[in-house]
Amino acid sequence: MTILSIDTSCDETAVAVTDGNRVLSNIIWSQALLHSKWGGVVPSLAKRAHQERLPWVVSKAVHDSRLTINEIDAIAATIGPGLAIALEVGIAKAKELALKWHKPLIPVNHLEGHILSPLAWSTISNQQLTINNLNFPFAALVVSGGHTELVLVKKIGEYQILVRTIDDALGEALDKAARMLGLGYPGGAVLEKLAKTGNPSTYKLPLPLLGRENQGKFSYSGLKTAFYRLTNEKSLTKQEIYDLAASFQNTSFEHLIRIVKKSVLSLRATLQTGRGNPEITDFLVGGGVASNIELRKRLRNLGKKFGLKIHFPYSKKLCTDNAAMIGLAGQWAFARGELKRTKEEIESIDRIPGLDFSLGLPLSRA
Amino acid sequence: MKILNLKETSKHDATAQSVKILRAEGLVIYPTETVYGAGVDATNPAAVKKLGEYKSRPFGKPFSIAVADWKMAEKYVVLNETAKKLYRQFLPGPLTIISKLKTLNSSNPSNHFLSPGVASEAGTLGIRISSYPLVAKIVRSLGRPITATSANEAYKKRPYQISDILFNISDRKKQLIDLIIDAGELPRNEPSTVIDTTLDDQTVLRQGDIQLKDKIHILSRTPENTQNLAKELWQKYEGFVGKRAIIFALEGQLGAGKTEFTKGLARAMGIKKEITSPTFNLVNHYSLLFTPYSLLHIDAWRLESSSELGSLDFSKTISDKSVIAVEWADRVTNVIRRYQEEAVIIWVKIKYGKSKNDRLISWGIF
Fold it and tell me: Where are chain B's structural domains?
């Protein structure tokens, strides 16, 4: 089925058109340029920017998909989690289009989008992952500026969060470390570049929750504090900046990998004692940090060692916040019947900034 | 569990009955010039273990003791000049003074009699000489120190009356109490000020009514200490809940512990959900079961100008009488000040201290 999807959960204005798993168009207008040099967000400006840009981004997405409005089956929109005043702009637009074009509207959980993003196919490549290639249950990792979650996917639409951060998200920690090095905000991508030239063992940073891996938690605030101690009020040489960047990235990834490894292994142990013999063999990775080459390398190594097939989204644009993943998740939500058809139903859709998988379902509230 | 009402019992009788129970390894709830205390014979390991169970405390977290006088204190600790000055000036009174334990040797076997788990693992001990006559009477008559910890469970309501205690503990815990000395409702004095005299400078670890300097600040040595301060401040102002909004305006560098503070606040409010960094979402919302009030956790770091707080529905949260923790409050000071009439605003400043985990935390209502 063909879906036009909208995501305005935070800074990016994103609209896409998908046909099943195939991404026909995926337009992202980033607000990063709009905000100041170190990346402040102006909520009201963000809201206005979403409002001003959405019409253009929608028509660009439709145009690039080469579909006509008639050929689009449904509209999907992110309803949470995210920034309330940003979410409501995308939802309002989706309602307007659904009513104007007489299409059903599908509310989608942003996190479910990230989880399923490796299932997206490009229009040109024939390397295609389908849910038939996946063994259920499988594990998924979402790493971004707002998320650090390891999730057990029992089936599409049924999720259990195994591990989450108790303080900062991984992407947020990388961005803040970059900020401490004077690299701007969000500077995670710059940090990655500089880390390549740095020596990751020059600076000793404490590995978070060392020896407590089985508590099932990610934590980055202690690492951030230790890093602040190293960088504060010092003028740093270029090489020092490279080494610090490499050290921070190395430690933050090592923590992630340790916890993921521990959790997947203990998950395998639990599942094997249960009925049947479901083995975790597939591992999906989504979110902005999933485009980090070093992290990909480490996850692939982990996969090799423990017989996990690691699946990443096919492009960087599917890692950062985007709408294509919302269209993708939307098709299964549609199949589950999570859609609104009548004017009344459509208008009743509301933003849920703190949306969670609290009952295992994508749209259950905290 | 027996309850003695001081209105109907003579002080002499109350003392005699308490001593009898303390000698038999019993747990006595007793009134002081601050809050109700939970006392056991501090030299009896079985009694101290029972108290640990009652307070749900992990072994190794120390208890302060109440002694009758200076002389009894010197049986257990070494009083340096700083400590002596404080004893002279403030005791008996609502002050807990931490000193180094006397070392064990043949000429001085006395602290041999203190039960394990009373002094800290670092070899320090907190001592109280209460100005509440009954406490001194009991200790003197027992001839040994008793524990001087508050009678509530950690993170629960301050015990100013017996019902504050009994309403908040399980039946199993009630069974651990052998005697309650009920002096009715105590005046709402702060818990004792806690001062550490074992460091180079005398350092306030908890601020009560006794104030050493014009400027209030405490030393936090662990994230747990920071959480604990948040709890103390919450307990001090929770009476305003539902009457006015309560704002904790937090200032401090990256990694100083602003989110840690908020974790303690949430825990004291009874919020079970994990508090994570609000940097990405700008605002996180936590609701409480059974009450209409909620906690809003706002991060102003990414805001470009203070007026942007308005777009996050800030004035509505004030009129809803929410509890609000604002990180990077110094970036939005002028907007917060606008609500001085409608809200109780507590400014909390967290600064990095000398050694790695030290934080100096000051607060006030300006």
Answer: 2-182, 215-364
Q: Which domain holds residue A196?
A: 131-313
Q: Tell me the three state secondary structure of residue B323.
A: strand
Query: Is B215-364 the same fold as B2-182?
Result: no
Dist CA B2 CA A178 (whole Å): 61
User: Which parts of chain A register pLDDT below 50?
Assistant: 37-38, 366
Residue A336 backbone phi and psi in degrees, to 5: -80, -5
Mutation choice for A interface testing from B261, B271, B273, B277 by most A CBs within 10 A: B277
Taking an 8 Å cut-off on Cβ atoms, the answer to whether B279 and A176 are in contact is yes
In a domain, A354, yes or no: no
SS3 content of chain A, % helix, strand, coil (to 5): 45, 20, 35
Supply A194's token pair.
């500089």
CATH of residue A116: 3.30.420.40
Are both A78 and A31 inside the same structural domain? yes
Contact indicator for B86, B195 with CB cutoff of 8 Å: yes
pLDDT of residue A10: 86
Neighbouring C-beta atoms of residue B104, cutoff 10 Å: 10
- Please check whether residue B247 is in contact with residue B339, taking contact to mean a CB–CB distance below 8 angstroms: yes
> A–B: how many Cβ contacts below 8 A?
90
Return the residue in A8, A9, A41 with the most chain B beta carbons within 10 A, the one to mutate for interface testing: A41
Contacts of A83 in chain B (CB under 8 A): 281-283
CATH for B2-182 is: 3.90.870.10
The answer to whether domain B215-364 has CATH 3.20.20.80 is no
Q: Are residues A88 and A144 in the same domain?
A: no
pLDDT at res. A366: 43
* B261: closest chain A residue by CA: A167
**Rounded-to-integer distance, Cα A289 and Cα B243, Å:** 44
Q: Does B288 touch chain A (CB under 8 A)?
A: no
Which tens digit of pLDDT belongs to each residue from B258-286? 999 999 999 999 898 899 999 888 889 99
Contacts of A248 in chain B (CB under 8 A): none
> Is A83 within 8 Å of B281 when comparing Cβ atoms?
yes
Cβ separation of B274 and A10 shorter than 8 Å?
A: no
- For B8-66, the pLDDT digits (tens) are 999 999 999 999 999 999 999 999 999 999 999 999 999 999 999 999 887 778 999 99
Q: Is the ipTM of this complex over 0.90?
A: no
Q: What pTM was estimated for this model as a whole?
A: 0.81
